[in-house]
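Two folds, back to back.
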Amino acid sequence: MDSFKDKTVVITGGATGIGFGLAKRFGTEGAKIIIGEPRQAQLDTAIAELKSLGIDAAAMVMDVTDPKSMEAFADFTWDTYGGAHVLINNAGIAIGRKAMVDLPLEDLHRLMNVNFFGVWHGAATFGKRMIAQGEPAAIYNLASENAFFNAVTNSASYIASKQAVRGLTEAMRDEIPDFIKVGMIVPGFVASDMTKGSEQFAMDADTFADKVVEQIRAGEFYVVTHSYNMVRIKPIHDEIEAAYERNAPRYEGDDEYDVPTLIAKLRARRDGA
């Protein structure tokens, strides 16, 4: 998508932090902005600032954990601007750090409902409508550096939620029609509601948004911003590769148990029958 001018960009959790930074960045390129989140006061403040910048924007109180609320949010988008061209599934929360064995299940469910099922609801609801719309579009899901490595100890619930988003997004790439670009945004430490009290150590949300929007424009799948992450990621890949070399080394004909290869053979056999 070379230009976002006159395109409709929808951002969940778009009133603060990363979401608001992206709303401003897309809006300054002439995009029409729709933001949603549960807090009316934050939405009012965000819309006022967006409009003061000359950005065409609208907002709706909504809850990503509720499929009916997500459907209403999509209705609002189509009623307001006639469709959607970019969806950023940005809404997310964190809970207090606690070892996995000590974490109350209700806390885990609350976090997963927002960080994973909220993304699922957004992608499914808007994805269906974008497919029917039949125009070039994009769906980008917010993951985290924690989708690749454990950045913070005693955060198993958050890490699991972001790795689940990674799995979902990689599966969507194979399932969604090619005219809808799918990708995953991988923030590191960025100033937001979740980093209050330590913003001086975090990447500014506007700087982050600049990097993200350019990569979405280029059609990148992995939208990345924090260079040092590779120092953490490479040893994990090396460890996986070493485990295979020790215990399951390559051999001639080793694709005999490869599931995609077997599926292709079965399809070829079926089609040839």
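---
second:
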Amino acid sequence: MMLEPLVIIELAVLGLFTGFMAGLLGIGGGMIMVPFLIMVLSARNIPDDLGLKMAIATAMSTIIFTSISSVRAHHQKGAVRWPLVRSLAPGLVLGSMISSLGVFALIKGPFLGFFFALFVAFSATQMFLDRKPKPTRQLPGPVGLLGAGGFIGFLSGLVGAGGAFVSVPFMAWCNVPMHNALASSSALGFPIAIASAAGYVIGAYGLPDLPQYSIGYIYLPALLCISLTSMMTAPIGVKIAHQLNTTQLRRIFAILLICIAVYMLSKSFKSFGII
């Protein structure tokens, strides 16, 4: 695949948009990037199965950089709950390594896309319903947080998201204020992305037919362009996030996820020959 100027422009615009949304919603940008990266790769004649895996792996890898920018801005506002982040991190790393290094390479593209869409839709439904947790519910103890981190990391490594699609509803369910949940999820994206990126590179080592400028499943031009531009707009998203109320943030998050889920379901159904 030739590295055309148009590809660079498309990736740069995508980075600007996803960086802003990552700062606004604490989602790391992964779930937003995947559908658009699939479009970019498909237009360059990358097979759908390989294109989906490369989109997921590349999107996750960019979160290494977008999370740093977002976390710095959230930390300056005192919104990140670092003790909670430290408790979840070991499970996140273990879970994401297991999924990205082993399970990810074994699942066929259409099934992976369908799985991605289902969990995005589930997260959107939970956020849109805005169910109020019991006032007495608290975060679990160390063992419970380790298990929750492992579950979040496993799903994140599988679908290329920074974990907010599960971690934000989980924290909200445990009565963590929404702004703190979004800020903390940005911090959680970093260990997930590091562990998953390593798994994507090792798991695809020696595979034939990988396009030029790729390392494992990671497409380097996209990683570079999106990372550089997203770090410019992530702090802007953070600033706006702290000016909005909780209800507005939940609705924005839910509507965005629903749109992504519908797109990914349609791609999967086409691959299955249903539509």
